[in-house]
């Protein structure tokens, strides 16, 4: 049976942590689509390509060969996972992700992967665009303060120096751009189940989703 799971939600809602655990439980390939937009941003910044330079952006994306190995993103044979999570990338990614041509190329790639494999994907437009027909859709949410707290702890634990207020600021700005852009903005698909994880542990969220899926399988 072809099963696919879509998880959407704002920055720092816990999507990737939850998706990784569920991918093991249901034996699905985990595709972190945010990593793909982050990789485009990384290479665009490295090559001084601005979000309004559509021609150069398209050329750049065509030169990137992206694949996921053990939940890490490999671009042109180099593991870029540690670089793409840095605050500098977080600060810029929503501007590149709002470009329709960037979205078209990445959505295309994501759809191709989902045709070939059983996947769990997380992002902003998975239940609404990429996996529109997915049998299981979830929308993870939490208060901006809780999300900023989690992201702050995550980065500090990785040895990356950050200020809580900067993280909160970035999350609020990113949420605004992601929900207000013209192409594929973030919103809850009408058939997605919303889970507010503000007062739930990771285990509680995983259990909730696990039981919902199992009861329908
Ligand atoms: O992990 P975090 O919640 O910080 O965000 P992410 O999933 O890594 O996504 C980074 C950014 O990529 C988002 O803020 C969006 O601007 C963009 N994105 C998107 O537009 N569409 C997706 N399907 C996934 C990410």
Tally of contiguous helical segments: 10
Cα distance spanning the termini: 10 Å
How many individual β-strands?
A: 8
Spatially, the strands of the biggest sheet line up as 2-6-1-7-8
The CATH topology annotation reads as Rossmann fold
Total of domains: 1
Can you tell me the overall shape? globular
Please outline what is shown here.
The protein is an alpha/beta fold and 217 residues long.
Description of the molecule:
With 217 residues, the protein is α/β, with parallel strands linked by helices. The chain has a single domain (4-196), classed as Rossmann fold, CATH 3.40.50. It contains ten helices and eight strands. It has a five-stranded parallel beta sheet with strand order 2-6-1-7-8, sandwiched between helices. The protein has a three-stranded antiparallel beta sheet with strand order 3-4-5, covered by helices on one side. Helix 5 packs parallel to helix 9. The structure holds cytidine-5'-diphosphate. The site of cytidine-5'-diphosphate has 17 residues, from helix 2, helix 5 and helix 9. It is an enzyme of class 2 (transferase). It comes from Clostridium acetireducens DSM 10703. Its EC number is 2.7.4.25.
């Amino acid at each position: 049976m072809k099963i696919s799971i879509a998880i959407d939600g704002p920055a720092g809602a816990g999507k990737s942590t939850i998706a990784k655990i569920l991918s093991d439980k249901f034996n699905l390939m985990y595709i972190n689509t945010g990593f793909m937009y982050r990789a485009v941003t990384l290479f665009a910044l490295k090559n001084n390509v601005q979000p309004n330079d559509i021609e150069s952006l398209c050329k750049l994306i065509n030169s990137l060969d992206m694949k996921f190995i053990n939940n890490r993103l490999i671009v042109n044979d180099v593991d870029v996972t540690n670089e793409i999570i840095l605050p500098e990338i977080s600060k810029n990614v929503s501007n590149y992700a709002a470009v329709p041509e960037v979205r078209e190329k990445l959505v295309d790639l994501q759809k191709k992967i989902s045709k070939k494999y059983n996947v769990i994907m997380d992002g902003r437009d998975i239940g609404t665009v990429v996996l529109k027909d997915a049998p299981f859709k979830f929308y993870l949410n939490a208060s901006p303060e809780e999300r900023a707290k989690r992201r702050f702890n995550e980065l500090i634990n990785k040895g990356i120096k950050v200020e809580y207020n900067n993280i909160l600021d970035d999350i609020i700005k990113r949420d605004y751009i992601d929900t207000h852009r013209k192409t594929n903005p973030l919103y809850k698909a009408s058939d997605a189940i919303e889970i507010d994880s503000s007062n739930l542990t990771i285990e509680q969220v995983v259990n909730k989703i696990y039981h919902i899926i199992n009861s329908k399988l």
